[in-house]
C-alpha cells in the first residue's frame, strides 16, 4: 500500500512538510514502548504511537521506520517536528484510537511487523 | 555534511525563493478539443505525466496520466479532453514563495501545480523535482538523487590501503540527559553511512547503540562512553560507565526486567527489553559488571552475515 492510501485510511493530516506520498509501506508497528518498536519495526513500515516526544523520532531513525502516525490527535512540540523534518521522517496526526487504527489497517490487508523482525 | 545549518538554510530558502525562480516555463499543454489519444502521444513524447489544458490563452483544466488510464481501460481514447479533464483547479501564483507549493503538494498529495500570473494566465508548471533541484542548486550541493535513500555511498575501506584498517568513533553520554537521548546514536548512524556500511548492518548497529545510549542515560550515576570500532569484517559497539553496576546480570538480561523508575515509562522506555533487543541484533554480546565499580557492554556484528 502507498503512504497516501494508509493516510487516507487513518484520516491522517500531515504535520511535517514534504511527504513522499507514493512510498510503499508493507508493515505496521503499533506501540508506545520504544524498545518494542526497536524490536519489531521493519524498514518500509509505519509506526502508530501515542507517544509524541523526540524519542519517537530517534527510534524511527534508528529502526528505519518510514513514517509515524500519532494517534488520538496527539500534538507534538515544534522541536519534535523540526527533528522529524531534519531526519526525513514524515509525521501525521490521526483523530482515532490505536484500536480503531489497527482495525482499519488490518482490515485493509496490512501486516504487522512481528517478533522475527530482524 | 553538517545537517543542522543546512537544514536551517533550506527552510529559509523555501520561504525566500519565488515559484517563478524555480518553475519550468516551457509547459506542454493541450486544448480541450484535443482527444485523449492526442494526450497519450504528448505524454509519451515529452515523458511527462500530465498537462494543463489551455483555451484562448486561459487555463481551464488539468489532465493527467490517471485520466488517460481510465479512458484507456474503458476503450474511450477518442473522447475529448474537455470531457475528461479536472476543472477544479489548484494553481499557485508565480509571485508566491516555495512554501505555498510545498504546502499544496503535502496537503493535496498532488505531484505538479500549474503556475499562473495575476491575470490567471498559465506561465509555467512546478513539480517537487523542480523545487528539490532549485534548493540543491541554491545550497551548492551536487544533485545526487531526488530521494535521500537512493544515494549510494561508496565504501571508504575500499579507498584505503593498509594491512588492517579500522575506524573508531567515540561519544560521551551524560547521565539523565534525556533531551539529548539518541543524538550520539544518530551521529553514529550517519557516520556508518559515510563509511559505507550496508543499510541492514547500520540498522542493527543503530538499534544496539540507541538502546545502550539510553541505558547510560537512564541507569548510570555519572554517564559513560559509547565507542564504535568499524573494520570491513567487524563492527564492535562498546559502552563503559562508572556505576552503579548491575548486581545480577542474569536478571538484567531477562525480558521485561527493569529497574527504571516509573516515570521513565512515560518517555517510552523502561520496558526491560533493551538488552534483549541488543542481543537479537548482535552476533556476539558480552555484559560485565561490578557493583559500585561499573558496567561494560560489548556487542559485535559481522557485516558479512547480514548482506
Ligand atoms: N549501564 C547500566 N548500568 C546499570 N544498570 C544497567 C545498565 N544497563 C542496564 N542496566 C540494568 O539492566 C536492566 C535491564 O536493562 P534493559 O535495557 O534491558 O531494560 P530497561 O533499560 O530497563 O528498559 P528498556 O531498555 O526496555 O527501555 C535495567 O533496568 C537496569 O537495571
Ligand atoms: Mg534499556
Largest sheet of chain B: 5 strands, antiparallel
**Element string of chain B (H = helix, E = strand):** HHHEEHHEHEEHHEHHEEHHEE
Number of helices of chain B: 12
Structural class of chain A: alpha/beta
Across the major sheet of chain B, the strand order is 6-7-8-10-9
Number of domains of chain B: 2
* Oligomeric state: heterodimer
H/E series of chain A: HEEHEHEHEHE
- Proportion of residues in β-strands of chain A: 15-25%
* Largest sheet report of chain A: 6 strands, mixed
Mind telling me the CATH class of chain A? Answer: Alpha Beta
Q: What's the end-to-end separation of chain A, in Å? A: 21 Å
Percent helix among the residues of chain A?
25-40%
Strand percent estimate of chain B: 15-25%
Q: What ligand species are in this complex? A: adenosine-5'-triphosphate, magnesium ion
User: Which strand order spans the largest sheet of chain A, edge to edge or round the barrel?
Assistant: 1-5-4-3-2-6
What is the count of structural domains of chain A?
1
Give the N-terminus to C-terminus distance of chain B in angstroms: 26 Å
Tell me the overall shape of chain A: globular
Structure description:
- Chain A is α/β, with parallel strands linked by helices and 118 residues long.
- Chain A has a single domain, classed as Udp-n-acetylmuramoylalanyl-d-glutamate--2,6- Diaminopimelate Ligase, Chain: A, domain 1, CATH 3.40.1390.
- Chain A has helices spanning 3-9, 34-40, 54-63, 78-86, 98-107; strands at residues 13-14, 27-30, 45-49, 67-70, 91-93, 111-112.
- Chain A has a 6-stranded mixed sheet, sandwiched between helices.
- In chain A, α2 links the parallel β2 and β3 (45-49).
- The longest helix of chain A is centred in the middle third of the chain and has 10 residues, at 54-63.
- Chain A is globular, with a radius of gyration of 12 Å.
- The two termini of chain A are 21 Å apart.
- Chain B is α+β, with helices and mostly antiparallel strands.
- Chain B has 2 domains: 19-132, CBS-domain (Roll); 157-301, Histidine kinase-like ATPase, C-terminal domain (Heat Shock Protein 90, 2-Layer Sandwich), CATH 3.30.565.
- Chain B is built from 12 helices and 10 strands.
- Chain B has helices at 3-16, 19-22, 36-46, 65-73, 81-84, 98-108, 128-138, 156-159, 183-195, 199-219, 249-252, 274-281; strands spanning 50-55, 58-64, 92-93, 112-116, 122-127, 167-173, 224-230, 235-241, 284-290, 294-301.
- In chain B, the strands form 3 sheets. Chain B has a 5-stranded antiparallel sheet with strand order 6-7-8-10-9, with helices on one face.
- In chain B, α9 (183-195) packs antiparallel against α10 (199-219).
- Residues 141-147 of chain B have low confidence and may be disordered.
- Chains A and B meet through α2 and α3 of A and α1, α6, α9, α10 and α12 of B.
- The complex binds adenosine-5'-triphosphate (ATP) and magnesium ion.
- Adenosine-5'-triphosphate binds at residues 211, 215-216, 218-220, 241, 244, 246, 252, 257-260, 269-276, 295 of chain B.
